[in-house]
Each structure stands twice: as structure tokens, then as C-alpha cells.
Amino acid sequence: MPERPSLDRRALAWPLAGLLAGAAGVVASYAAAMVLTIREAPFVAIAELVVRTTPGPVVQFALKFFGAYNKSLLLGVMTVLSVALFFFVGRWARQRWWVPVLVYSLLAVLAAVAVVSSAGWATVDLLPVAIGYVTWLVALSLLTEPLRRVDAGATQAGAGSGRPLPGAGSGPAYVKGRREFLIRVAAIGGVVAIVGVSGRLLGSGRRKVEETRRLLRLDVRAPRVPAGSRLEVEGISPWQTPNEEFYRIDTAIVTPAIAPEDWSLRIHGMVEREVVVTYQDLLDQELSDAWVTLCCVSNPIGGPLVGNAWWSGVRIDGLLEQAGVLPGADAVLQTSEDGWNCATPLAALTDGRDALLAVAMNGEPLPIDHGFPVRMVVPGLYGYVSATKWVVDMEVTRFADVDAYWTQRGWGELGPIKTASRIDVPRSGASVPSGTVQVGGVAWHQHTGISAVEVSLDGGPWQPMELGRVPSDDTWVQWGGSIEVGPGDHLLRVRATDGDGIVQTPVERDVLPDGATGHHVVDFSAQDA
Ligand SMILES: Nc1nc2c(c(=O)[nH]1)N[C@H]1C(S)=C(S)[C@@H](COP(=O)(O)O)O[C@H]1N2
Ligand SMILES: [Mo]
């Protein structure tokens, strides 16, 4: 056993390490929650868990004594308790390395329970908990490692002189360890301060925008799924994709949170007059709406990066007309608040299709991550050349003069959508009873439409499937039907025919440079019932 530490600086260094490591973990988890736009950081989630599980009589008692059972009181108590706990964790770490590991693990489990037991949690909500946990372990071991060396040096020196040196040593190991400890305290303290302040700024701005968004009442028509568009096939993608399930693609690590009153769009370039529109200007115009299926160019055959929503907004052709496009222009370069950009063929914005500057998605103000307050939606083109979120600038120009974000990186300049079809049921690897098997999925070729979908079992003849009725050529269609399946392993293949009568090619091509082609094939097995 090392000697009992006397009350010297060395003994104080350990609790200090505990406090700083504790703060580092809490701050890291908080900042992670803000970056991931998770409503409550783990610390607050625990507070909410306490509130949820506090029995009524205790609440009454607290009310009597403190006048209010409010969250700031609770958070204050929790902070004091945490400070004390982290202080002792640091002290205990000196004798028993596993005590901090145990305490951090218990705290992480508590936070995870708090998250999982809250309403509407998602798996990503656990990420801040994991980040906090790892930060605790790493920060504490970084801080205590030089202290351990100091202790070891003191013990050695003590052994050499025949008696333990009480408290502070003065040998080279002590001086070096001490210096290193102080450097690490300063470095970790600095990082904690910076991360904490940025998390706070990020969190408060985002929270305000989210609140504004939630309180917005836009005068848009509510989505009404057209009759006949939905087929009765269990397990296929819903025709209308809910906002929470809609795929997301952003290059930004932290998506922009823009207050509507801070938003404006400048339309300039090859135009007769520059136009600047505010959010209110958009709302003051007549809003159009349309069902449009959005798809990502990087969606592999059979992949999930596609969704169908009801979009409301202002027609882009009208805005371009206000600006007066000059002859010679063939592209509109859009830039988002976060600096991403893309160029869309001018023709796709002016040929009468429902190209919208959208303010609402499925009847609600756009979710922040889907471009709030305003984004572009253009039927028939992949998102990377048309669907600019948080759009703030539109420059009428020529393709010859632009080099946009993804085209610089090897993706095609024009991004017309290719015919695609997907099998949703049976799922790959599924096991079903043999006999009549229900199959189904979705198919799309926005702005051209889908006229037929067929499946082939184990290389057999193409069998026509039933199609849902859709309101326009700009959405996907559900397809479904039944096939006869004997026992054993099977391959099911699907292909669509577009509105021009062109059959989807079986030739397999990668998503790069301008979208994948090929048939979706699913393997499944059937057992004797
Ligand atoms: N500002 C911005 N807009 C963007 C992107 C982006 O990274 N940043 N990604 C684009 C791509 S590649 C696609 S497929 C669509 C996806 O839109 P969603 O995230 O709302 O589904 O947005 C487009 N708009
Ligand atoms: Mo995309």
C-alpha cells in the first residue's frame, strides 16, 4: 500500500483530475446532442427521468419546502451531486483504477435508461451517451497517467532513502510528472471550454429556430393521399413517406438552423433585374403543391434513398419570370446557406413541371434537416442537381461557366432520374411458406411515369404486377401481386417499364457518375406449410 497521502498538492491533483474528466464527459455528450439536434442532452434526460419517476408525495413535500419542484432546482441538485461524485471518483482512482470505470459505467447505463424510457427516442439518441462515456475514460486516464508516474517516483525515492517521502517529492520524475499533469489540465480544460461554449451557442440558436418552426402555421393544403395509390400488400413502403422516415443527404456536419426572418433568396446573374425575396414574400404569394418523389443519385439498386412527399411552395418558373431570364442562359446555380451548391438545367425549371421553392413537406413547415425554411424540389432530377436545401442564392448562368459541388467530384453534370424498381416484400433472406406468396414494392421514373412492373421468379417468364394509381408522373408507384412458389431457395427479380414504354435495363451500372442501373433481385426461401 502506498502511504496515506497527506494534504498536499499531489493529493489535490487527483480529485481535480476527477472533476475535469467528469466535466469533459458531460460537456462532450451535451455538444454531441446539440450537433445531432437531439432534443435533450443525456444530463437533462436523467433529470426528466427523475421527474417522471418521482412519486407524488415526494413532489408535494418538495413543493412545501422549496415552493416549486422545478427543473432548475433539480438540475442544480444534480450538478452538486455530480461535482461531489466526480471529486471522489478522482480520489478513488488513485488507489483503485476500476472505481472510476464502475462509476462511469453506472452513470452511462442510467443515462441510457433515461433516453430509452423517454417518448419517441431513436437509436442515435444513445450516441451522446456513448461519447460522454468514452470521453470520461479517456480524459481521466490522460489526466491521471502523469500523477501515477509521480506517485511511482515518490515510492521509489522513498524506498531508496529507506523511508517514504511524505507528500511532495522533488526528484526529476516528480517535476516532470507535475509539469505534464498541468499541461494536460490546461489542454483538456481548454477543449472542454471551447466545446461547451460552441455546444451552447449551437444549441440555443437551433432550439429557437425549432421553436419558431413548430409554432408556424402555414396556409398550405394538407396532404390527402389520392385514392387508389395504396395497394394492400403488407410490408411495402407507404406511398407517402412520413417526414421522420424520409432519407437525408447533407454534406454539412451540422445542418443550418435559419430563422425565417433571417432568410432571403437572391436571384441574379443572367437576368434583367435582380430579385430578392423574403420568407414573408413567399407566403404572400399563391402557394402551389404537388406530390413529388425525391431520389438520391447514390441510391444503389434496391436502396432506401428515395421518398415521396407532398410539397408546398412557390413555383420557380414564376420567380424566374419576375427576374426576366436573359437569352443564352441554360442553368440555374443554387447555393445553400452552408455553402453547398448545384446547377439545374434552366429548362427543368421553366417547362411547366412542378419545380417548387418549397416551404412545407407533408403539410408541415420543412423540418430543419430537410431544408427549413426554404428548399428546392424539382420532379425528374436527382437531388444532387436540383433539391438544394436552405437555398439562399440562385444565379441564372450557363453550364459552361459553373462547377458545382458534386460535379467537381466526378458526378454527372445533368442528373435525370433513371427508371428504377424495388422489391420490398419478400425481404432479402426471408423465409416464407410455399404456395401463393405476396410480393410488392415501389417503382419510379419521375416526370416520365411508370406504365408496368413485372417480376420473374428464378429466371422464369415475366409476370405482370398490379400498379397503384398515382396523381402524376412525378411520383413513385406501388406495385404488388402474388406468385406461386415451391419449396426451396428462390430469386425474385423486378423490372419496370416507364411512361414512354422503355423497359428498365438489366445492365448493371454503379451509382457513380449519374445513377445506378440494373434489376433489383431478392433471394428468399420457401418452406412447406
Ligand atoms: N444544402 C444542401 N442541399 C442538398 C444536399 C446537401 O448536401 N446540402 N444534398 C442533396 C442531395 S444529394 C439530395 S439526394 C437531396 C436530399 O434531400 P433530403 O435530405 O431532404 O432527402 O438534397 C440535396 N440538397
Ligand atoms: Mo443525392
From TrEMBL:
Instruction: Keyword check for Cytoplasm, yes or no.
Output: no
Which Pfam families does the UniProt record give?
Oxidored_molyb (PF00174)
Oxidoreductase molybdopterin-binding domain boundaries: 255-400
Q: Which Gene3D superfamilies match?
A: 2.60.40.650, Oxidoreductase, molybdopterin-binding domain (3.90.420.10)
Where does the chain cross the membrane?
12-33, 73-90, 97-120, 126-143, 181-203
Q: Keyword Iron-sulfur on this protein? A: no
Question: One GO MF term, please?
Answer: molybdopterin cofactor binding
Q: Which GO terms describe its biological process?
A: sulfur compound metabolic process
Keywords attached to this Swiss-Prot or TrEMBL record, sorted alphabetically, are:
Membrane, Transmembrane, Transmembrane helix
The identity of this protein, by name, is: Unannotated protein
Native species of this protein? freshwater metagenome
